[in-house]
Batch of 4 targets.
Target 1
Amino acid sequence: SFIAMDPPKHDHQRRAVQGVVAPLNLKNLESVIRERAVAILDGLPLGVEFDWVEKVSIELTTQMLAILFDFPFEDRRKLTRWSDVATASPETGIVESEAQRRAELMECVEYFMNLWQQRIGKEGHDLITLLANGENTRDMEPMEYLGNLILLIVGGNDTTRNSMSGSVYGSHLFPSEWEKVRANRDLIPNAVSEIIRWQTPLAYMRRTALEDVDMHGKTIKAGDKVAMWYASGNRDERKFDDPDTLLFDRNNARNHISFGFGIHRCFGNRLAEMQLQILWEEMLQRFSKIEVVAEPRRNISSFVKGYTEMKVICRG
């Protein structure tokens, strides 16, 4: 996938899908995101325990993914499953074996190949149509197509989903922050950046050094594989005061590195922020408090920092 490529191939493939998050398209998506968020939140019970991950985080992000792919809405939970399987190994409990994982990913590519064939020669701004008709992507091999699909599915699902869950858990751990933003809604955009910093939904990314670099008294040699720990950088006390604390009015919250940096910076970062911002705007309009009533269950992964279950009670 293009996250693992160098220019110029990286640039061609990234540019092919960039239009889906262009400013005009984001503006058009805003009303759709709000409509979906309102419908989901209005359907939640008050004063009754339920799973926030299942009812809100998964459903909202999966609906958004279905829009971005123009994916059959009734099958949208397949996207959730494929996203989970893509980063799973047998010890996670998501799949029983590597063979099962590969079989499910082949089901994914077969499904998407059918959609690809249907959209050749068609006009549209969804990710499949853009890839199927892009000058530099229309002849893509199936496994390369699968790689890019998984990148887009995980990037649009796991990250935002777990930030949505993490934001509720974080405001439970630091209840004064909920009250702070409830009293001043202008803090919401900064609060979203702080949530993404504090949660850091993807813990790291691995790169290969192209040249020798001296850093902090150590030499990274050309060809060395380097893991960049976003989770560590976002909690670096040299950069962030009291980094383990969630502070919705933190003055440098936007300096987090959860979206990566440089040519591989997450191209959907504005969309992710928009989804979280709208969710918080609508949550604060409806609920005086969201109580986390049990320690959340987390996924088993060094890579994806996420939640599989979070029992909450919403108060009107």
Target 2
Amino acid sequence: IALSLFSGAGGLDIGFNKAGFNIVACVEKETSFCQTLHKNLGRYLESDCRIINEDIRILEPEQIFNGQIDFIIG
């Protein structure tokens, strides 16, 4: 299980997904990048991946994912 921080448009996330990582959430504060991430859901990313359009500095960990994270992409 992986978490993506500062996800941008998701290029790194797509590569990690293809390598077998289950990305449970992508955190990105830029709305236009999140719109691209939403378009990639189901096509390049797992459809159950949460896209969080917020600044990481104001989030509590449980707001992102309430479980075990094995890997962080950033």
Target 3
Amino acid sequence: MRLEPVAQPTLARTIGLPALALAATVAIASLLAMVAGAPPLSVLGLILKGAFGSKFALLETLNRATPLIFTGLAVAVAFRARLWNIGAEAQLYAGAVVTATLGTGALAWPSGLLLPSIALAAMLAGAFVLLVPTVLKTRFGVDEVVTTLLLNFVVLLWVSMLLEGPLKDPMGMGWPKSARLIPEARLPRIVEGLRLHWGFGLALIAAAVKARTTLGYEMRAVGLNRAAAKFAGIPVGPVLIKTALLSGGLAALAGFSEVAGLKGSLTLDISPGFGYTGIIVAMLALLNPFGVVVAALFVAGVFVGADSMSRAVGVPTYLADIMLATALLLMVLALMLTRFRVRWE
């Protein structure tokens, strides 16, 4: 067996194989539901109902999708240029720390000026976290997969130290969390009385801006063939630096939106793995910005719906984790078969 490159994949091959991967994911999830002792169609129906079956469920799904859009965009931007950013979790927490630091009264500015300033500062923090591994890669050839992955643990320990020290809320009854953000530093709610905030709108704007930026063409050229891009006059090193700044900044906006829009303070568990899940979102979206929004809604719907389904029929919520892991593996296989044809000899 050997793999033969496909010169120009057809539209049916480009769309059909990923669609088949998602259908296979649903089939596997149904089989696992049967093994768990629940009717498969009932389980899938309850997931859909729990995620989109009511106004409250829909808004909670959108709320859960907000950080996933940011981290999915961050990963898609980097992966497009073959900058393997596995550290979106660290960049998210960097943005969250800056938000908690500046939003608790350090800047006594009106909301119209304070919120953009905090968002920009958070993006700069996330950009710096990814800039270090990128410089190490471009100057010394250090593998960015290792450095970005290890930075996740370094930054998480740093946040833990801050929450036990300088950022610890003196009125928090000993709990490791920051003080509450002042009202001027909070993102307003889209629907009054519910948790959905304008971070979701910011995520949609980020996806639209990313889709139209001219930097995307340079990143794609560098990702496809760095030697050819360099021959064509594209500065590979600066493009990777700009890619890192954009990717890290987008991931940091996830931390900004979670602290300023949802939580109101910084805790060590503010992210249940949004940075890692962003990799799944980006791969399911085929690194397309608008596809990231759709994939984030799908992933968020699976998680939110799985909670409701678990309470209704007693099936473990781990079914959602298996669905997403299966979807990622099958999507990677589908992407490979889109670009390569299997030949038997």
Target 4
Amino acid sequence: MGPVEQAIRERVEAEFAPVYLEVTNESFMHAVPEGSESHFKLVVVTDQFIDKRSVQRHQAVYRVLAEQLQHAVHALALHTYTLSEWTLAGAAPKSPDCLGGGKQSN
């Protein structure tokens, strides 16, 4: 785990006390140098999201990760759930393949 991923994990855990947290560095799926920490998928399950619309949940996460988003993180896929929503969903959607930055679909 790199320093950016670690900072994301620590900040989200401290702010939201999630019952489930998944931080995935998906930079390898993009046209970036090996070892990059620029593209992340974040799954946060916390009852702090009860009665919050999706945009409000995302704004809360963006506030907590403002420093990382300003300096290191280029893309952040957010999947935010309450515990009851997570129980129904069972899993976050799979991230699509990147086709930008020189990658082509066949």
